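Hello again,

I reread your note about wanting to compare the complex against the isolated chains. To keep things tidy I'm splitting this into two emails, and this first one only covers the full assembly. Below are the input lines as submitted, including protein chains and any nucleic acid or small-molecule components. They are followed by the predicted structure of everything together. The single-chain runs will come separately.
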Amino acid sequence: MAEPLATLLEYEKTLDCVHCGLCLPHCPTYQETGRESSSPRGRIYAMRGVAEGRIELDAAVVDEMYLCLACRACESACPAGVQYGRLVESMRAEIDERGARSRASRFFQRLVLRRVVASHIVLRLVALALRLYQRSGLQRLLRASNLLLVAPRLRDAEQLLPPVPPAWRAPGVTPAEGVLRGRVGFFAGCLMPEFFGPVNRATLRVLARNGFEVHAPRGQGCCGALHAHAGDARAAERLHARNVAAFGADDLDAVVVNSAGCGASLRDPGDALSARVRDVSEFLHAAGLRPPRGAVPLRVAYDDACHLLHGQRVSAAPRELLRMIPGLQLVDLPGTQDCCGAAGIYNLTQPDMSARLLRRKVDAIRRTTPQVVVTGNPGCLLQLSRGVRDAGLDVEVLHPVELLERSYAVGESD
Amino acid sequence: MDPRTGELVDRLRELPSVEDVLAGASEMFVYESDGLTLTRGRAAAVAFPSTTRAVCEIVRACNEFGVPFVPRGAGTGLSGGATPVDGCVVIECARMDQVLSIDAVNRTATVQPGLVNAHLTDAVSGLGLHYAPDPSSQTACTIGGNVAENSGGPHTLKYGTTSPHVLSLEVVLPDASVVQLGRRDAHAVGYDLRGVFVGSEGTLGIVTAATVRLMPDPETVCTLLASFPSLVSACEAVSTIIAAGIVASALELLDDKTIDAVEASVFAAGYPRNARAVLLVELDGTDAAVQAERARVRTVCQSHGAIEVRVARDEQEREAFWRGRKGAFGAMGRRAPDLYVHDAVVPRTRLPEVVEAITRAAEERNLRIANVFHAGDGNLHPNLSFDRRDADELARIVDMGEEILRICIEAGGVLSGEHGIGLEKRDYMHMLYTDEDLEPMRWVHEAFDPADACNPGKVIPQPRACTESNPRHRGYEKVTF
Amino acid sequence: MEAEQGSLDHVPIRATWSPSDASEVAAMLDKARGDGLAVVPAGGRTKLHWGNRSDAECVALLDLSRLRDPLDVQGDEGIAIVGAGVPVRELERAARAVGKRTRLPALWDAATVGGTIAADPVGPATRPHQRLRDELLGLEVALANGELTRSGGQVVKNVTGFDLVRLYCGSLGTLGVITRVTLRLWPLPELRVVRLREVASVDTAIQTAHAIVARGVDPAGLAVLPGPSGARVVCAVEGSRVDAEERAVRVAGETVGEDVWTEAERQVSGSQEPVDGCDVRVSGRASDTLPIARAVADAGGGLRVALPALGTVFARVAADALDALEARAVRERWAFFVERAAPEVKSARDVFGPPPDALPLMRRLKALFDPERVLSPGRFVGGI
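Full-complex prediction:
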């Protein structure tokens, strides 16, 4: 019947699951489909079934493993402490190893991950090309021409794009302002400098304003999260090793990350680098934020990034930081604990499910009527921007540090 | 898949109001068990209705093909009530999850069966109301499943199990007709068919809508956590609290092994690790009453040698105390690959001796056991850790399950307090009831499901006298009046 | 066994049997079936007038008042195990002696535990979520096939098989004869306060009662009675001393003695003597109490007592007004029950009103439990 016992699947970890089902309502794909096979419990059961040779690794199993967002909401709900995120990654690696996935899907994913994301140079070229594309009027032309309809994946990717801001690279060292409180490393990320320059700039500014000298070592690169989620364990390990080397030498209090997905991924291996990784909100909250003085009179909804809430268990810190901003009204976003459908490159690989989840999120935003939605992860920022844009909502989508920096800046000019 | 099954699956897929039909081998595999992994079955298909009409159509199609059907909610049940019968169609109600109406004046809500228990309370919390039955799986289990199992929960002690909270049910009977059982105003006219349907474990039909009672939120809630040097002293404290006339809304006990498991999990509640037993007491009512009772409970616990009595300082701590209790079952997953959550009830005053006997029996069988109790109503949940890949251990587990029942019945108890009989305990029903006692249950079943199509083979065992020669599963023909 | 003259709704009572224990009950049912004789179980005979006129030619009355064993009140365990013939008041006395009480409606002096369960009455102390059927843990029942059976158990939480206990409760002796009962005991409250408020009209009284519930008083009993100058709201509050005092303060009015409460109970139990007119009980949702009371008045009826928390109104109406009131009840989806009427009035109608749509299921059940129609044939809903 099935192939011999799995080698890459962390089989023993599947045994932690006692089939209680408490994860079910927390799983976005289960919420959408109601299928046991689309639930964490069902997926673990299928992994176990494959490993024990009780079922074939058929197309249905493979599809469900990739329909999973790896948002890890189930881990927050799991009383048995099942490490679901690692399980699904190892299962995807197993699937790749057995060649059980369609060639086209693998090719598309590998192309994006190994050749684009993992390479600084290619990434820069892509970003540059996009900037040109958007500003030259070609975008308008192409969108109007319906040419994109012939390539649905390309179309989805194209539509996800917000206007790409100018690239911004962090200086090697940013000096602290005021009394020096410590020295921290800054993990700049791979997509962030190209697509989220303002977020990185705000992060450095806020850290500096809080008395931290910020080091952004040159040798760092992609965290490898997307590769690991996709089951490309080897690429992920290679990338992590590069970062360990980049940050290893420096005598730093912490390595600050402003991308939830990267943070969760860097923390996962449990090595020396992992132990020093802090999300920017978590770090500032623990250090004690210097009170921002400038009023930012906005109605703001905080949306939990999965890999911050579920992956790193950080939820109170960003909210409390935002509450310190004078004039800011923080409101609850219903379903904030549920994934927005971004999930790395999920919105490219599973556009239908991604759109369904985004619709839920946008509905919640529409009902809550904030002026700004904030979230601490680049993928989510892209996804939510697209969501509110498509829905025609007049809502700004920002990273929390951008609001902090705005408050400091306003406070300065007063 | 045999051609006839394939034809049925095609038929189901053509039904307009059926949202989804699964029939793949690996898909059926993940449906082979509910929360009880000791029993398994292989369905032919899983159908997802979204309306009452869709349920009727699925049932009608099954009847036409002579295929049995099994209703299912979230699959969190612990007695195999939703274990598929081989070759059946599972009717998965998870997508029928809407709140249909809320009557705040009369404090009722009408909901679809797939609504998650806790989501109902979420939906009405703005009105100062809640749905009282709170099984430990309430964040996942569905109202339809609760109705089928007559689910309990910690607050059953004061507010009762599911049954008193169900006013009326819209039910698709096994012949595909729709009938209303009970009334929206709870006044029974004729036999209380609603009462007998609640707890019938999906064998009498499929709930497609339920009108349930909502309770006003208590003005004040206070949760105390008392730790004891022994289980016996904790049990005695419970008895004294009840004898003192204090009607606590919950009295929950956890033994030391459970404390360890919970504290090692994400639901760590800050239970003292040195205690041999932890007692959770919840009081609710007016502020004055709760204040007074809190002092009395504290005194009682201290007089029974409590190591420490803590009062939850705020809602957050209260929730943490409860999260530990409600996550206890899953937290046991850390101890072994599989877990058997047993459920039995004894007269409350017999709890200490019964627990001792059960612990001894587990030791004799070289099994790992941890205990959680709804101490106020004598309902105990011995949790047995095992590895189903170990055939010998599995056999000892099954034997232990029976031994627990023997001990409980000897102490004047019953087979199940809230998990139901399902497949797990069906063949133990004779330990408590004679065939004559079971006969009226068979009549009830015969009246609702004469063809034995709906979740067959659950709850009621075959009569002892008439099995082999009888072609029909339950063997009614042989029974003489 | 002795012969007895008399009749039940003009159906001759051919004999009255007084079994001394449960197995005798079972044996008598076996014999009645053999003889083709219909049996009507009776306890304190306080509610024998409930139900339709039997369609049997004659009946034997099965007097269960001798089933007074056991009377086992287990205060520590919080349960009581009693013979069906034990009077409710006697059980209450025994429970009180150990600081406990039951939540059985105790509305008639002679009512027995078994009879009360079979009839399932509601009273001013019935709470919406704590009905009689929710207080029962186990029943011993003699079936028409002559078997003595057990259902439920002796523990407060039990899902061992189908819930037959709730099925038997309120089945008016048409499925089996209850011979022994295990039920729940509750602690006696430290303090009980009865508050009375006189208002100008029944309408105001019902609204006042709803307001009491809305204020979180959680009354142990609530009733509206017609009064000399309009209407009276009677509200009982129970609990620990501080608790009951705290909640009683929220009930406007004066604290009164138990006699006012007893009056409310007496109005529920209705007259024990033949009277002019018919005793009816009309029930809906809590919010229906007011429209029901108005409908009763429109039908020229006299309000006996209203229970606003339950949505139940007890009234006395003329026989010729029954049809109109019932038609109104059907339109409004209220339950309509003629508790007492002259035999000729009863023979012409179903005293339970139009049967529910689950009647075919109920008939199937009856046919399986009692295929030869031995137990109170024709007396229940839809002539079951």
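For quick reference: Chain C touches chain B through 85 residues (CB under 8 Å).

B.
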